Structures are given as C-alpha cells and as structure tokens.
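Reopening this one. Same input as before:
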Amino acid sequence: MEPLLITQDSFQNAWLRAIQHLRGKAWEMFNLIVHITNPALLDENLHGKVTDLQSSLGLFTPKEVAYTIFPHKLYARHNNAIDLFEAYNKPKGMYDKLDPAASHRWGTYFRRMTHYDIGSKPVNQLLNIINSINSSPARRYKAAYHIIIHKPGGETKKPLGQPCLASIKVQLEPAEDSHKLHLLCTYRNHDFLHRAYGNYWGLCNLLRFLANETHLTPGTLTCVSSHAYVDKHKVSLKEFLGELT
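Same output, byte for byte:
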C-alpha cells in the first residue's frame, strides 16, 4: 500500500486530481495524501458545479459538510474567536439549531474542537491553542499543538457512524517575517464524493481562521486519507468529470 501524494494549489484542484486517481484504481485506495498549498483559493464556477452535482444526488452540499468543520459565515459575522465559540455552543445557538440530518449522533467536528466533553467541564481545544500561541510569541512550538476528535472506546473501532476525521496537527514554521501556520489532518475513512470536497473546504477555512486569530501567515493543508473511496453514484461522477474536460 504505497502512499500517493497529490500536490495542488487549491483544494478544488486537489480533489479533482484525487477523484481521477481513484477512478483509475477502481474507486478505492489506501494512504492517499493531498497537499494544498493555498487554502484561500476558490473557483466559484467549479464550486457551483460541485454544489449542483451533490444536490442533484441528494447528498449534503459542500457548505453543509464544510460547516461541520468550520462555520465560516458565522465567523465572518462575529469576526473574533470568542464570539464565534459562544454563538455556536451556547444554548439554542447554532449547534443546537442544527438539522439532525446535517450532523451526527456524536455531534460535529467543530463541536468536538470547541466543546470536547471530558470530565465535568468541556474543553475548548481551539481556544487553548490560540491562547497558547498568542501568550508567548517568543516560545512558539513547531509541533506541540494537537486537536483530538475521537473519544476512546467505541468510536475507535466502529466502521460507520463515527468521526472519520481522527486528528489535526497544528504546525508552526518559522519564516522571515512571521511564522506560517500549517495543518496536518488524518482521516480513517474518506468518501471522496460525499465528503472530501466539503471536508477540504472546511479545513482550509479552519486553517485561515487559526492563522488570523494568532496573527500568523496561512500555510499549507495536508490531509492523509487512510482509506479513500467512492461508494455510490459513480456513473454520475464520471459524467461530471467528462463535462469538465
């Protein structure tokens, strides 16, 4: 199971290249690594086409998937981390108002990042990382910051109905003018039609948020998919790819 590395400037180009590789591998492969060099790039025309495709197939839209990782429009409305976390997690906030069909029994990724239930008091992992980086600019660690999604026990062994995004590493690279902030993410199971496009978009937005809140330069996003696949709607996906060429 030799890994495959795909490097592209935008998450959209990376997703398309990954889909093309999967098509040539009977729609399934292990250890697919996607490296996105510019998390801010977004082709609105292609974005609309992917949205139309997923809507026509009755799948969650890219925005619905991305919002499970980072609610970028809610952040744009509040423009700071503290107000964002409050608006999302407070009673009758965005999380409580989610359509049950758009979330999971275990919650959402952003909920786990900002309200991880452990002991008597939930932990806001994102706030802890932001505060740690901002509190001591002279002692910023290159690879100490880590976001946990899974909870020990059943979530680490069930094939379905549990978080597929396992963890996120926040990496700081010293640069001439400012540190760069990168993310390294691991997926145990990754459906490239249902989820990967929206996942990449949400992670790019999360990266930009963390960079903004820590006054660092947005860097790169790297995603490792232990098991990458397309399960259903393969004919429709082939037709979609054909229309793009």
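So the earlier flakiness isn't reproducible anymore. For the record, The longest strand covers residues 217-229.
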